[in-house]
Amino acid sequence: MKQRSHDRRGVLSAALVTVGVLALTSCASGAGTPAAPRDAAELTGRGPITYVSSPDASGAAQQTIDAWNAEHPDELVDWIELPLDADQQRQQMVQNAQVKGEAYTVLNLDVVWTSEFAANRWITALPEDALPLDAEIPATVEAARYRDTLYAAPYYTDAALLYSRTDLMEAAGVTEPPETWAEMQKACDAVLALPEAAEMSCYAGQFDKNEGLTVNFSEAVNSAGGSLFNADGEPTVDTPEALTALNFLVDGFESGMIPEEAITFQEEQGRQSFLDGNLVFLRNWPYVYASFSATDGSSAVQDKFGTSPIPGETGPGVSTLGGRNIAISSYAENQATALDFIAFFTGQEQQGERLAVSSRAPVFSEFFADDAVTARLPYLPDLLTSLEKAQPRPKVVQYGATTAAIQDAIYPALTGDTSPEAALADLQQALADIVAE
Amino acid sequence: MSTSTTQRPGQRTTPARKTGRLDLGEGRRAALLLSPTFLVLALVVLYPLLSAFHQSLFSSQSGLDADGFVVEGDAFVGLGNYVQIFAGADAARFYNALWNTTFFTFTTVTLEVIIGIAMAVAMNRAFRGRALLRASILVPWAIPTAVSGLLWRWMFQADGIVNTLTNQQVLWTAEGFAAQAAVIVAEVWKTAPFIGLLVLAGMQIIPEEVYEAAKLDGANAWRQFVAITLPLVRPALLVAVLFRLLDSLRMFDLPFVLIGPRKSSVETLSILAWDESNQLQYGTASAFSIILLLYVAVIAYVFITILGADVVGEKKPKAVRARRRSQEPPAADVTRSEPTQTKVTR
Questions:
Q1: Residue A57 belongs to some domain of the structure
Q2: pLDDT, position B315
Q3: Pick from B233, B202, B247, B236: nearest CA to B310
Q4: Per the CB < 8 Å rule, is A27 touching B314?
Q5: B317 touching A (Cβ < 8 Å)
Q6: How far is the alpha carbon of B331 from chain A, nearest alpha carbon, in Å?
Q7: Residue A46: Cβ-neighbour burial (10 angstroms; 0-12, 13-18, 19+)
Q8: What's the domain count of chain A?
Q9: Fold (CATH) for B92-345
Q10: A23, A45, B43, B239: most buried by Cβ count inside 10 Å?
Q11: Contact B48 A437 (CB under 8 A)
Q12: B331 pLDDT band (50/70/90 cuts)?
């Protein structure tokens, strides 16, 4: 009996030990004293630096870095590659900032993280005159600012496009891409009446519970004339405009204009569905263009689709702004080198060089009118139209909590579990709580 | 695993002390010899544990100053984080995650035990290609969970192979019971072989003579299984089930990859802790981890108390020795007179 109880103790402590080790992986110490905001002239120090970024399969970024390294043997740039998953990139950069690590010098940030990093003083303010901001698309520059101070340089940009099946629209007698939601519905009614389109659905975006839903909802609200936050940073989602926007999506699911399975769509599933010829209209980013126009037989829509800016309530819609910014970590050494590198990396010459290998949209408007470039990337003029009106996603410090609150409120409305009115009232309350924190 | 090797030295001293042979000098030397182990344990187990508990007593308070910069500080809130979890505004989310964790654990472990035992029985038969079957059955277990999560998501997507084969249009990766079912299927597929293999190991030490005797006595296959196989593999099975319980109570990667984060129908306690730490709320995240730790400890304790699983392996050598010493008679005994089947387990 004694032996037995000893066994149990042993077992229990063994279990505790195992569990203890496993349960505690997520804990690291936070909180640090923020660095003072810097004046441009205070960026000092020259020497080797690191560029911290997601992988770039096209090899375009590596090409730029090689070019820099060839010219600056004493100020070499070493690329620290982070995981492909954006959440993990952010987490690693945040962790580096919290321990004030010197390992990361130049950070490749998603546009929506810029406010958070700036407000926490994890990245340093940049001198505006060191960068060619005037030649860049205004919306992209705006997305690199926090409270009117520039904290990053725009690297590449992204906005929504409406992909449409021009072959079917032509067959149904629809000549122009839709500019409003009503026009889109009308075009669908005509197209779906065709015998060859009997199995198809009208429209899809990204409605799975992830960042894509935040993007699609915020686009709908902006396209209906509303906004998620006003100029003072107060939430404004319990408004008639937001309700119109949400009803467009909810009614879409109810009427079958948006297929039922679109509730599981992220970017890739929607791309696949359009690629297989199941959708008449698709809202997606420019990156899917290459796969639709593939000539190797993988695309059922090759030469059968077109692009246009996304539709809205009463006229062309307002896209959300995507893309990346390049910033300097506050805790890094050799910041003078870092500034030079950013100017070189995001400069017009290198963006032009990269266009030959990468389909990422440049931030200089000049390229969008360049015939040589648009011949290769025919969607650029539509993208520019989209970008000229594009709105950043909420520029809030607690972006993670904000986007989570939006998804938590909107997803059940789309599945019919809550009414649109209640969802928006809840969201208003949740966002007000986050802002008040 | 590491736990069993670290426990063993500690236990060897016990019988010695009981017999009174251990004098003071030897005790000191034993303590000295063991001290590196204790030091390492304290470093990798005790310190993170205490540190997490300490962290869970703080809450990061952040606000913006006039220039829009974050003013941050950790405020001591005592058990405030715990109170907030159990009774705060987001308590429903916690209870939902607790329920999901429990639900997944009990459904998956039950299914895994049934399927695992069936696999072990199949693998224990002598037939052509047995080695190949044994190796192939381990493939699901050898695949990293995140990868199998992706594989299953691909199969479960709206136009995936599952819907095509069943000719249904079920939205597995949206919210709801379908999502839970998808997680359960993938989890069982992945870990039933683990139980199967441990049970098989337990089966292979059952002497063939026992079955021969049972056959002579006219026991059919089912009778043999219930009266001989099950009782004799019980120790191995209990250890396997305990490991699976501990493992699936902290389930994270499969629902996270297969269905996605923040889906309330598959959100587990681990996902909740991850989500909090992702929002830089390390205090709450630590509190969630501590709660999960206590919950797992309670379940493990209850399981061990009720079923008496022998994890450390102290009893097994003895049982085997005892059986070897008098192999023939008790085995024959058991099959002849059914009421004594409990003897077999001793």
A1: yes
A2: 53
A3: B236
A4: no
A5: no
A6: 25
A7: middle
A8: 2
A9: MetI-like fold (1.10.3720)
A10: A23
A11: no
A12: very low
